[in-house]
Write a structure and sequence with these properties.
Distance between the termini: 42 Å
Strand content: 15-25%
Largest sheet: 7 strands, mixed
Order of helices and strands: EHEHEHEHEHEEHEHHEEHEE
Radius of gyration: 22 Å
Number of helices: 9
């Protein structure tokens, strides 16, 4: 990619809304062709027809086509993109990664979170990342245009990449979205399980397994959910202020668990994205593991006065 008027960062995240799902705009072709002429490694993580159209006419070079990264839970999506980048990143020089962003179920909320998080997780990688979005149907919010504008520091135009004034820094954007969501409506009902002043993790695990029997969760998903709750509760007991309370609500379509201690609440929506050091035996990666096992993990003060900390884990059945 060419220079912009901004300071060049290691990770350059550029969005482009396709005017036609079946056509490749000239601006996209020109950007990929320019990277090929520079000898840049190019990875096309797009559906085969689009990848084929982008490869057509390119000079022989370091161009690879791989399967598109599926859109799902933001931590899983971000982890897959990071793993792809780390596999394909050349020993020196930059990587051009082209991906297509489209949720399987039409829900753009996870895509917004994922694309915001990529700016944080990949910040130090020397990658030019072009995200291609389908035409905006103009129904519902957020849609592809809003996701592209809020999460990409640059947008690709006919004149090339240009600075995007609508871009929001990932921590700021995710914190605002987290506060807007608020408590889950399930918390207004009687909990399926309530453990007050917990002091025995074995008691917690046994009680969780019993409570999840007969729910719509697959046994593997239930096991992962228990492990995620265990990790967060362990963090609360070791780093928070007792007592620690755990409440679980189960409905046919989702499970909500709230872990509350009396300590100071952490206010970092980026915490736990990416393992702290990569060595599972050392520990210190509980939040990262928990995030990858649930659909949502958020933290907020336990009461209106700002005292205490409640971490909420939500898993859709």
């Amino acid at each position: 990619m060419g220079q912009t008027t901004s300071e060049t960062r290691e990770y350059r995240h550029v969005g482009h809304l396709l005017p036609d799902a079946d056509a490749v705009p000239r601006a996209v072709r020109d950007l990929v062709a320019a990277a090929a002429r520079r000898g840049q490694r190019i990875v096309l993580a797009c559906p085969a027809p689009l990848a084929g159209a982008l490869r057509d006419g390119l000079p022989d070079g370091d161009v690879r086509t791989v399967a598109p990264v599926p859109s799902g839970r933001p931590p899983e999506t971000v982890a897959e993109v990071a793993a792809l980048v780390d596999r394909e990143l050349p020993a020196d020089g930059r990587l051009l990664l082209v991906t297509c962003v489209e949720p399987a179920d039409g829900d753009w909320e996870p895509c917004l979170d994922s694309d915001a998080l990529l700016n944080h997780v990949l910040a130090e990688r020397p990658v030019d990342h072009l995200c291609l979005f389908p035409p905006d149907p103009g129904a519902g919010a957020p849609g592809p245009e809003e996701v592209a504008r809020l999460t990409h520091p640059e947008l690709l135009t006919d004149a090339g990449p240009e600075l995007n004034d609508a871009y929001r820094e990932p921590g700021e954007l995710l914190r605002e979205r987290q506060r807007r969501r608020g408590p889950d409506p399930l918390e207004e009902t009687v909990p399926t399980l309530s453990l007050v002043d917990l002091d025995d993790m074995r008691t917690l695990r046994r009680a969780l397994h019993r409570a999840l029997i007969g729910t719509a969760l697959h046994p593997d998903a239930a096991q992962d959910f228990v492990l995620a709750i265990d990790e967060v509760t362990t963090n609360a007991t070791e780093h928070g202020v007792p007592p620690v309370d755990v409440q679980l609500w189960c409905s046919p379509d989702r499970m909500v668990c709230a872990i509350t201690d009396r300590g100071v609440c952490f206010d970092d929506p980026l915490a736990g994205y990416g393992p702290a050091h990569g060595d599972m035996a050392v520990g210190g990666m509980g939040l990262w593991l928990a995030r990858r096992s649930v659909d949502s993990l958020t933290a907020s003060p336990a009461d209106a006065s700002g005292a205490g900390c409640t971490v909420r884990l939500v898993l859709n059945a």
